[in-house]
Amino acid sequence: MNWQPDTALNAGTSTELGQDRAHSARMYDYFLGGKTNYLVDRAAAETVLRLLPAAGTAARVNRAFMHRSVRCLARLGVRQFIDLGVGMPMSPNLHDVAQRAAPGCRVVYVDNDPIVMVYADALLGGTAEGETCCVQAEVTDPAAVIDAVRSEGVIDFEEPVALSMHALLEYVTGDREPYRIVRRLIQEMPSGSYLSLSHATGDFAPDAMKAVVDVYTQTGTSAQVRTRAEVLRFFSELDLIDPGLVVAHRWRPEPASGPSLVTDRQVSLYAGVARKSSVL
């Protein structure tokens, strides 16, 4: 897979592509040690790190949770994944993990950032038996998300689907009805489908997390951390699988799967996977 960012980036101005302001996906890439970010992203991320030094650790824990949850779902027989808010490609991506566990897995990546689309070729590889694609859509318009996914013909909505929403909903504030969005998306999935979700919280470091939210707001990205009870509400009418909703590093830990000698305060991120067992 060859990336050709210079050619693609020349297709639009920096303003059109959002390079003139910090973006949460590129800040997350910086926290993970990636290279697909810009000076404005690095400056905002460094401000966050001064307020919350463990932000990079939390990002790695979140990434490791994604890997574990995908492997778990593949072992449970899920062969279709929709990854919302994919962010910048960084191997191993979701399809790498899923297709390593089951080569026939099909994956659709969804993001609203045009620069993610620029780098989308890095998400289009995989096994000969499986299939991957990337579509641009805004999570706050769930009907448009479903239409965009359906248009690719990769996902069969008559068969179970895993919907991944990792470190995404903290950027959907209450006035944009995040619970309605999740419910609407889940309604499109057949019984036997799953929701895998992680979400930042201020339960363990309220003052620091409030300051971090302020940084994102000042850079033009709305953000909202939530309590455990508020995160749990996203799983309403779904059946959480063991161990339920827990701090992300405690969700089915595996050897060499992300940071392990960390505290709940350092992670400040809840994670869970739940099954849809009936029509909503």
Concise synopsis of the structure shown:
The chain has 280 residues and is of the alpha/beta class.
Structural write-up:
The structure is a single chain. Helix 8 links the parallel strand 4 and strand 5 (194-200). Residues 1-15 have low confidence and may be disordered. Strands 1, 2, 3, 4, 5, 6, 7 and 8 form an 8-stranded mixed sheet that branches. Helix 2 (24-31) packs across helix 3, helix 4 (55-75) runs parallel beside helix 5 and helix 7 (142-152) runs parallel beside helix 8. This protein has helices spanning 5-9, 24-31, 39-51, 55-75, 94-101, 114-118, 142-152, 178-187, 206-218, 228-232, 264-267, and strands at residues 80-84, 106-111, 131-136, 162-166, 194-200, 239-240, 246-247, 269-275. The longest helix is centred in the N-terminal third of the chain and has 21 residues, at 55-75. It contains 11 helices and 8 strands. The chain has one domain (24-275): Vaccinia Virus protein VP39 (Rossmann fold, 3-Layer(aba) Sandwich), CATH 3.40.50. The termini are far apart. The chain is of the alpha/beta class.
Which features characterize this protein?
single chain, 280 residues, Rossmann fold, 11 helices, 8 strands
What share of the residues does DSSP label as strand, in percent?
Answer: 5-15%
Q: Give the CA-based shape.
A: globular
Task: Report the CATH topology name.
Answer: Rossmann fold
Low-confidence stretches: 1-15
Architecture blueprint of SSEs:
Blueprint: H1 5-9, H2 24-31, H3 39-51, H4 55-75, E1 80-84, H5 94-101, E2 106-111, H6 114-118, E3 131-136, H7 142-152, E4 162-166, H8 178-187, E5 194-200, H9 206-218, H10 228-232, E6 239-240, E7 246-247, H11 264-267, E8 269-275
Parallel strand pairs: 1-2, 1-4, 2-3, 4-5
Antiparallel strand pairs: 5-8, 6-8, 7-8
Helix pairs in contact: 2-3, 3-9, 4-5, 7-8
